[in-house]
Amino acid sequence: MTSLRQLEGYLLWTSKAAEARTQAEEFTGRLPWLTTAQREEVERVFTEERLVFHKAALVQLAARARELRGEYDERYARLKARCVGVCAGGFGAAVGVVSYVVQK
Questions:
Q1: Of 21, 6, 11, residue with least CA distance to 51
Q2: Can you give the pTM of this predicted structure?
Q3: Is the dihedral angle over the CA atoms 97, 101, 102, 104 positive or is it negative?
Q4: Which residues touch 66 (CB under 8 Å, ≥6 apart)?
Q5: Is the pLDDT reported for residue 104 higher than 90?
Q6: How many CB atoms lie within 10 A of CB 41?
Q7: Which domain holds residue 42?
Q8: How far is CA 12 from the centre of its chain?
Q9: Do residues 58 and 11 touch, judged by C-beta distance below 8 A?
Q10: Number of domains composing the chain
Q11: What is the rounded (10 degree) CA torsion for 7, 9, 65, 69?
């Protein structure tokens, strides 16, 4: 399971890096007066900044996913306990009714 998550993370990060490079190229494409060296430097810095942004967003998203997982696990445990309680109460009531009917 871990290797599948690692692969998924790798693919996601690779796509974000490609997206950042594409955005950098589009950005410098609007600046025709840049020299080749300047263009490369601006693209490098732009890409770097976008990757910092994406990393922060992904870290925040992962933290929120962990929070939600905890909340849903807690809710599920409470729901499960209530269902078991209702079933046990229903079973107890059924046993009581059967006992009453059998005694008559």
A1: 21
A2: 0.67
A3: positive
A4: none
A5: no
A6: 13
A7: 2-103
A8: 12
A9: no
A10: 1
A11: 10
Q: List own/partner pairs for 68-74 with CB under 8 A and 24 or more apart.
A: none
Token duo for residue 83: 């269902």
Q: Does 2 have pLDDT greater than 80?
A: no
Q: Which residues contact 40 (CB under 8 A, 6 or more apart)?
A: none
**Interhelix angle 2-29/36-103, nearest 10 degrees:** 140
Cβ proximity of 76 and 61 under 8 Å: no
Beta carbons of 54 and 23 less than 8 angstroms apart: no
Helix then strand then coil, in percent of the chain rounded to 5, is 90, 0, 10
Tens digit of each residue's pLDDT (9 = 90 or more) over 62-100: 999 999 999 999 999 999 999 999 999 999 999 888 888
Q: How many residues belong to the chain?
A: 104
Q: Does position 35 have pLDDT exceeding 70, yes or no?
A: yes
Residue for token pair 């925040």: 60
pLDDT tops 70 at residue 21: yes
